[in-house]
Amino acid sequence: MSLKHDIEFTLNGVKRRVAVDVTMNTLAMLRDVIGLTGTKYGCGEGECGACTIQVDGASLNSCLMFAVDCDGRNVTTIEGLANDGRADALLDAFVEHGAVQCGFCTPGMVMQADHVLHKHPRPDEACVKRGIEGNLCRCTGYKKIVDAIVAADGA
Amino acid sequence: MTELKHYFAPTSLDQAVECLKDGDVTILAGGTDLTPQSQAGRVKIKHTLMNVRHIPQLSGITLEGREIRIGALATITEIMEHPLVKEHLPVLVEACDHFASDQIRNAGTIGGNICNASPAGDTLIPLLVLNASVELASMPEAKLYRHSMPLSTFFVGPGKTRKSLCELVTCVRIPVPAENHVARFYKHGTRPALDISTISIGVAGTLKDGVMSNVRVAFGAVAPTPVRASQTEQALEGQRLDAATIDKVAAVARDEVKPIDDVRATAWYRKEMIHNITKRILSHVAQA
């Protein structure tokens, strides 16, 4: 029997109470317990960034975070970002620049891009490249992704 | 070993060290090492998983006398963006800037990087050449007890430190560098992001009238722990940084390290890199 623990946190602006396995990571909680599958499982060890979410305003890999550590914190996933209007310019820019190929890296890429734009308003190309170095795109469509993020802020 | 039976998130240092008394506790901070290690089965979580995030005494970056205190929970991002660190410890900022990725820097803590004790840990090399010490807290009797240990004596092997099972790292303390202090860090890997160092080098000292003194040199990923290089330090101490000295010191460095072959590089390559990069760093210092 695995040990469970009750946690309470804000998920995409809404308070949630969840019972989670103590050893479960946040990615598994989001996908398998809560059912939000926008956050993707890529490598499971922090190399690919597909599982990027924001916690208390900072981007991080949900696969490297214990779910119990969400307790009392403010968590935003791609579903939250898509719904709250804050990232509309960024989402539009991804579409306009053709920055989505297979789309698997896109949720993580957008979450990280939103964080980069928040920290560095009007970033240049180099700043964006540094910002998304923890996100892999297996289609290798980096040029369009970088263009989209740079353009999003000027939009 | 017992199975995980208890999760605990203390809100004070006293509660935390009391919990550590029985020694059967796995400590969770940022989770960036513990998550993959525990899920791959390399680390087994003990009877109690203790999340130290909510302990205020482990946070913050402050100037205390002539020392900068960095709380164990400070994330790599917090450290590299903090005005005190930027002003006094630019070499630490540089190492943090080469640390993993933004996502991992936002989550990973300095206390975790130290306790994970990787031979290639990115912050450990600058901390060693900055003469950092680690503060440990425990509760041997009924009272909180703290003591400090130089970081240079803290590591004993890959993933192994002199911290006992009943102790918690509360902070690192770094003396504010004196005038004419110079420090450099170089990390060599195949790509800038998310790479475990093939080798890393830190050099620090006082440079006055072209002469290096109070020299500290540390190497990463060439031994079972991050190491100070005493022979290299001696070869450089009190010397004028001219071409002959730099050549000699780089050769001593190459002969001093005893790396191994592994997936990232051969021992031969590591020795060559130690030689070449030591030479490059010292040439840059001499020209600066």
Q: Radius of gyration of chain B from the CA trace?
A: 19 Å
Assembly of the depicted chains: heterodimer
Number of strands of chain A: 5
The main β sheet of chain B shows up as: 5 strands, antiparallel
Number of domains of chain A: 2
What percent of residues of chain A adopt helix (DSSP H or I)? 25-40%
Q: Measure the end-to-end span of chain B.
A: 55 Å
Envelope shape of chain A: globular
Please describe the topology of this protein.
The complex is a heterodimer of chains A (155) and B (288).
Chain A: E1 4-11, E2 14-21, H1 26-34, E3 52-55, E4 58-61, E5 74-76, H2 78-83, H3 88-96, H4 106-119, H5 125-131, H6 142-154
Parallel strand pairs in A: 1-5
Antiparallel strand pairs in A: 1-2, 3-4, 3-5
Helix pairs in contact in A: 3-6
Chain B: E1 6-8, H1 13-20, E2 25-28, H2 34-39, E3 48-51, E4 61-64, E5 67-71, H3 76-81, H4 83-88, H5 90-97, H6 102-107, H7 110-116, H8 124-129, E6 133-138, E7 145-150, E8 155-157, E9 160-161, E10 168-175, E11 181-188, E12 199-208, E13 211-220, E14 227-228, H9 230-236, H10 243-256, H11 267-287
Helix pairs in contact in B: 9-10, 10-11
